[in-house]
Specification:
Blueprint: H1 48-51, H2 57-87, E1 92-94, E2 98-102, E3 108-112, E4 115-120, E5 123-128, E6 134-138, E7 145-152, E8 156-163, E9 169-174, E10 177-183, E11 195-201, E12 207-214, E13 217-224, H3 227-235, E14 257-259, E15 270-271, E16 281-286, H4 300-306, H5 323-336, H6 338-341, E17 353-358, E18 379-384, E19 389-394, E20 407-410, E21 415-420, E22 426-431, E23 435-440, E24 445-451, E25 458-464, E26 468-470, E27 473-477, E28 484-491, E29 496-502, E30 508-513, E31 524-529, E32 536-541, E33 546-550, E34 555-560, E35 576-578, E36 584-590, E37 605-611, H7 619-623, E38 626-627, H8 629-634, H9 643-658, H10 661-685
């Protein structure tokens, strides 16, 4: 509360605006003022007038002034930003090269080989990537397709759409035919229906895994795919199909505005439901690891004697920790963090899994009695939510075999994110504490451990095809490299980092994009590497912008944007697909009703086709992106063997070494068990 200045009997002096009579220049000092003018005295300090205001007017005045000051600061900040943007060189924005116009909302899409698969209402549609022509539309569902995967098997494509009921179906697409293999989790009783959350197909298409959820439980089903039988079946069908006219594909430069409804359907493709393909073979069911509880064993010797082999060692299941010790530890934890634990706790969600199919390496060898083709997947790697362990399961088993892990990689903190490179040679495990471990699976040793800056936690990891900067240009080596990799890490605070590892030098982390502080509309929502352009990646921001970044130079090369009438409906979650084989990507745009256009009156959604080779800035990069072998020899760059040669040499070496290992291993375990029983008997005698 403020008080009047001076004595309590002092009268309020009127401001200048309320004085009577003509204005006069006041004398230089207060002593010379005439006493008769005391009632008309003018305050020298303007704020002294506010102290005399009664409440609540003084508070209202302060709030108004505060609001004015804050508004003025925002205005100045926007003006400074506008001036800074005008002074900066804006990247060149390229429009799309083509467009697929749709009347129904697309929910998902995938790209494989020369085809685009778009999932939507009651099924999915196949389009030609080059000319946007509709090849076939499979719309036989009562619900929409929410997600879709497409895996390249060489000459064939395996398609896996998931509908709103959570049912996943396998389709086999070969030349002119689309075949339905199986609805993996479809049941007659809807009350027992399970939901497919995620799926993965091995390199080469020999195995497939499906993460299913239902009845408060979650598990992973693993199947072996009889792709050789499928290929024989479709190449020699029992029913002959009618000859169909071949349609010539259009070139890239002729791609324009094409409507899917107006285009004539390609007569090359059809659904062949009369041909029944062999069903996938169910080989394994994997459940999350059980919570660690008290041991029933009475002594460490008894624990050791019960272990038949080394499978599952390190998972924490076989231990000698009693229930009383767990309870004591829980009491200490509750007492230490009571102030943080007091309050309402939300129900803990079900654990989910991230899994990969791994090729043979020094870390997990195939048994000697198992013979398979060179480079065939042999191990499934998986980690569960809030788990410290990365489990390894052999795929050379049947459903009768017990699903125990053959190997366990424990980590110091729960694994949050992981990623496997496209060549299956490198694996990154990112823990919840911000520590990343990079493994060289081909050599069988970790390339190193790196930590993100303080306060940064991993959101997603994206491997880049290894590139070199040669004569100021990013280029791919002509052959595979050895123990050299690069990947981009997107953190939860929207900062972007580059992780590089080279042999035994250890990984290094550098910042590509800082965390946005003032301009939150530039927050990075998603990133995607561009395999056709060395060292390039797409960055999708919250404001709807799509930019192409040069990772080596850490600068924006250009930008891409759909037409003004088709902005991104959900810019913080864009729907896009980057082709792994061609220099292009697809982006969904929704028609804006604010923009009136008579031509697009019936079109609500579009998928835009962007070609990097159509951009003058990128044309030379995509065509000349490989370093000749002679230049690599001059640079003394370490080369690696091809994947087939690497697997062949490894298998030959492992066959020679593992012939005697199983016998030695069993003999070693039997000797240790006998020794433990002997010690236990001696302890009982005492």
């Amino acid at each position: 509360m403020s008080f009047l200045r001076g004595s309590q009997t002092q009268k309020i002096r009127h401001p200048i605006g309320t004085r009577k009579g003509p204005l006069e220049v006041p004398p230089p000092t207060e002593k010379d003022w005439p006493k008769e003018d005391e009632e008309d005295h003018v305050l020298v300090d303007p704020y002294e007038e506010l102290d005399s205001l009664p409440q609540p007017y003084r508070m209202i005045n302060k709030l108004v002034n505060l609001l004015f000051d804050q508004s003025w600061e925002i205005i100045e900040e926007r003006n400074a930003l506008r001036e800074a943007e005008s002074s900066q060189i804006q990247p060149t924005v390229f429009p799309p090269l083509g467009e697929i116009q749709l009347n129904k909302m697309p929910n998902c899409m995938a790209v494989s080989q020369d085809y685009v698969f778009i999932g939507g209402a009651k099924g999915f549609t196949i389009y030609n990537l080059y000319n946007a022509k509709q090849i076939y539309a499979w719309e036989k569902l009562k619900v929409d397709v929410t997600s879709i995967w497409a895996t390249d098997l060489g000459n064939e494509i395996l398609i896996a759409p998931v509908d709103e009921m959570g049912i996943i179906r396998l389709f086999y697409f070969y030349k002119e035919g689309l075949y339905l293999v199986k609805a993996i989790n479809e049941v007659d009783d809807t009350s027992k229906q399970t939901t497919c959350i995620k799926m993965e197909v091995s390199q080469g298409g020999d195995f497939a895994a499906f993460l299913l959820q239902g009845a408060g439980d979650i598990w992973l089903d693993v199947y072996k795919l009889p792709k050789e039988t499928w290929l024989k079946k479709v190449e020699n069908p029992q029913l002959t199909s009618n000859p169909k006219k071949k349609v010539r594909q259009l070139q890239l430069n002729t791609l324009g505005l094409l409507s899917a409804d107006q285009l004539e359907m390609d007569t090359n493709a059809c659904f062949k439901g009369d041909i029944k393909l062999s069903l996938p073979v169910y080989i394994m069911k994997i459940k999350p690891p059980k919570p660690v509880t008290g041991t029933p064993f009475k002594s460490p010797l008894e624990v050791f004697a019960k272990i038949k082999d080394c499978y599952g060692m390190g998972s924490g299941q076989n231990h000698f920790i009693k229930d009383s010790q767990w309870e004591q530890q829980a009491e200490i934890f509750q007492a230490s963090y009571k102030k943080y634990l007091d309050g309402e706790w939300e129900e803990e969600p079900l654990s989910t899994a991230t899994f990969y199919f791994l090729l043979p390496s020094c870390l997990f060898a195939m048994p000697t009695e198992v013979k398979g083709p060179t480079g065939m997947t042999c191990v499934l790697g998986i980690h569960w939510t809030r788990s410290h362990n990365f489990f390894l399961y052999s795929l050379n088993r049947t459903l009768k075999d017990k699903a125990d892990p053959e190997g366990v990689w424990p980590c110091a903190a729960p694994i949050a994110v992981s990623q496997l490179s496209c060549s299956s040679s490198y694996l990154v495990l990112a823990c919840e504490d911000g520590v990343l471990t990079l493994w060289d699976l081909a050599k069988g040793f970790p390339l190193g451990v790196a930590a993100l800056p303080q306060g940064c936690f991993c959101q997603s990891i994206h491997f880049l095809k290894y590139f070199l900067v040669h004569k100021g240009q990013n280029m791919y080596p002509e052959g595979p490299v050895k123990s050299q990799t690069k990947c981009v890490v997107l953190c939860t605070d929207a900062s972007l980092h580059l992780l590089e590892a080279s042999g035994t030098q250890g990984p290094t982390i550098s910042v590509l994009v800082e965390r946005p502080v003032k301009h939150l509309d530039k927050t990075i929502c998603a990133v995607a590497p561009v395999p056709a352009l060395p060292g390039m990646m797409l960055i999708f921001s919250k404001n709807g912008s799509v930019c192409l970044m040069d990772v080596a130079k850490r600068e924006i090369i250009c930008a891409f944007a759909p037409p003004g009438a088709f902005p991104l409906e959900v810019p913080w979650k864009p729907m896009f697909a980057v082709s792994p084989d061609h220099p292009c990507f697809l982006l969904r745009g929704d028609y804006s009703h604010e923009t009136e256009s008579t031509d697009n009156a019936g079109i609500q959604y579009s998928v835009f086709y962007f070609n990097f080779e159509a951009c003058p800035l990128l044309e030379n990069i995509s065509k000349n992106c490989t370093i000749p072998q002679r230049d690599l020899d001059n640079m003394a760059f370490p080369q690696a063997l091809s994947l087939e040669k690497r697997c062949e040499r490894f298998l030959q070496k492992s066959y020679r070494k593992l012939e005697k290992n199983p016998e030695k291993e069993q003999e070693h375990w039997a000797r240790l068990q006998r020794y433990s029983l002997l010690l236990q008997r001696e302890s009982f005698k005492k």
